[in-house]
């Protein structure tokens, strides 16, 4: 018994030491962030791009070598500093964007999104506006049309709209809404989607008789549903509505599919996780507002277009060649039927580029003259921060093993 008491005392001391080290790490990370903000100020003054991949590679190689000197694994150091560098890049981009759009910062950000607290759109909203100044006022809506209308009528300043998912594909209704609104896309974000089977009380999966979820969620978890067999599937307007319903029913035979974080807001817990067909499941969201934003040329940008071509052979190829000839990379091409015009389609295109850039301006003018209908839905900062890849990580890890 005495030995056990001593062990507990030693363990408590070690935990106190770890807590102290963690606090020091947080302080140092905050100091680092302040330095990167000063770097951003310099880049604004001298028109220097946010990212310097060569500098990032040199930094990572140096950190890996130093880390190995302290007994740290090369991949551990790499993953840790990928997160730190990503945070630095996003903070610098946000600072540059704020300077390029004076007066855009609001003391209160009124944001419309699908569902209520706990929905994936709610979680994406929290994530995006955590880097923006001002308080957040959440406005839950029951349809994409209602979300758009909230911003159009100035009941909300922004809308967060899911546009595509790596498992279930594009959300066509949102594309259709964007075509017929005067709102502009001002931002994007990618959010991981982790579906779990959520219940109010401990139960077995085999006892579940009824499932509640958004239609997109059911599509993303079709393999899991097939394994369940004879279960009633009831669609809801949002994942939050599904979780709210299960909370109200308080039955061990009903469940919702949604995120564990969202479920916790409704007193639900997961009895099975990772339900999506694709384990790497992510959704991309657009942030829209009444006015477009100016994206500084130092910040990597995307532009989303919508167009219809004339009805002749090779018309689409001709339009896409304009992008190729101006060295503009297309990242997405989506077609949608034009209502009332059988066999005719509207094309939605994402490209890498800033509408203030010379080649992009040339391409846009040529597309206007070539297509039958053409509209820029928005130019916005590219939120996909690709980690710097260095072959040295593998090489250094091998050197350590051989050494």
TrEMBL record:
Key words, A-Z: Amino-acid biosynthesis, Aromatic amino acid biosynthesis, Cytoplasm, Isomerase, Lyase, Multifunctional enzyme, Phenylalanine biosynthesis
Annotated Chorismate mutase domain residues: 5-96
Catalytic activity: chorismate = prephenate; prephenate + H(+) = 3-phenylpyruvate + CO2 + H2O
Residue span(s) of domain Prephenate dehydratase: 110-290
A GO CC term assigned to this protein in UniProt: cytoplasm
EC number: 4.2.1.51, 5.4.99.5
Record's subcellular location: Cytoplasm
Positions with a binding annotation for substrate: 15, 32, 43, 52, 56, 88, 92
Keyword flag Amino-acid biosynthesis: yes
Pathway: Metabolic intermediate biosynthesis; prephenate biosynthesis; prephenate from chorismate: step 1/1; Amino-acid biosynthesis; L-phenylalanine biosynthesis; phenylpyruvate from prephenate: step 1/1
CDD domains: ACT_CM-PDT, PBP2_Ct-PDT_like
GO biological process, one term: L-phenylalanine biosynthetic process
InterPro entries hit by this protein: ACT-like_dom_sf, ACT_dom, Chor_mutase/pphenate_deHydtase, Chorismate_II_sf, CM_dom_sf, CM_II_prokaryot, CM_P_1, Preph_deHydtase
ACT domain mapped to chain residues: 304-381
Molecular functions (GO terms): chorismate mutase activity; prephenate dehydratase activity
SMART domains per UniProt: CM_2 (SM00830)
Role noted for this protein: Catalyzes the Claisen rearrangement of chorismate to prephenate and the decarboxylation/dehydration of prephenate to phenylpyruvate.
NCBIfam families the UniProt entry points to: CM_P_1, PRK11898.1
Protein name: Bifunctional chorismate mutase/prephenate dehydratase
Lineage, top ranks: Bacteria, Pseudomonadati, Pseudomonadota, Gammaproteobacteria, Alteromonadales
Gene that this polypeptide is encoded by: pheA
């Amino acid at each position: 018994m005495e030995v056990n008491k001593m062990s507990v005392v030693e363990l408590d001391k070690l935990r106190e030491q770890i807590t102290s080290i963690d606090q020091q790490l947080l302080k140092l990370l905050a100091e680092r962030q302040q330095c990167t903000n000063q770097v951003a100020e310099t880049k604004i003054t001298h028109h220097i791009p946010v990212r310097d991949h060569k500098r990032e590679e040199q930094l990572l190689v140096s950190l890996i070598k130093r880390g190995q000197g302290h007994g740290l694994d090369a991949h551990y150091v790499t993953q840790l500093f990928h997160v730190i560098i990503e945070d630095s890049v996003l903070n610098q981009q946000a600072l540059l964007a704020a300077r390029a759009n004076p007066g855009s910062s609001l003391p209160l950000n009124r944001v419309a999104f699908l569902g209520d607290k706990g929905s994936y759109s709610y979680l994406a909203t929290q994530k995006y506006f955590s880097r923006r100044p001002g308080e957040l006022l959440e406005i839950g809506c029951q349809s994409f049309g209602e979300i758009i209308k909230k911003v159009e009528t100035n009941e909300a300043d922004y809308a967060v709209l899911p546009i595509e998912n790596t498992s279930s594909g594009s959300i066509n209704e949102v594309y259709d809404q964007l075509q017929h609104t005067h709102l502009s896309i001002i931002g994007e974000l990618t959010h991981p989607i982790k579906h779990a089977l959520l219940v109010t009380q401990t139960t077995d999966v085999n006892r579940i008789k009824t499932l509640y979820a958004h239609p997109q969620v059911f599509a993303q978890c079709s393999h899991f549903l097939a394994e369940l067999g004879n279960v009633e599937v009831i669609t809801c307007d949002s994942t939050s509505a599904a979780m709210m319903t299960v909370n109200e029913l308080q039955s061990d035979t009903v469940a919702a599919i949604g995120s564990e974080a969202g479920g916790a807001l409704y007193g639900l817990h997961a009895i099975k996780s990772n339900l999506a067909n694709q384990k790497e499941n992510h959704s991309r969201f657009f942030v829209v507002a009444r006015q477009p934003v100016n994206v500084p040329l130092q910040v990597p940008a995307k532009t989303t277009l919508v167009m219809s071509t004339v009805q002749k052979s090779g018309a689409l190829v001709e339009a896409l060649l304009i992008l190729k000839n101006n060295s503009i990379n297309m990242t997405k091409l989506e077609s949608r039927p034009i209502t009332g015009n059988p066999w005719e389609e509207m094309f939605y295109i994402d490209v890498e580029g800033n509408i203030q850039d010379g080649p992009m301006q040339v391409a846009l003018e040529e597309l206007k003259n070539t297509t039958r209908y053409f509209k820029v839905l928005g130019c916005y900062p590219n939120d996909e921060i690709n980690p710097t890849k260095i072959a040295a990580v593998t090489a250094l890890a091998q050197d350590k093993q051989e050494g």
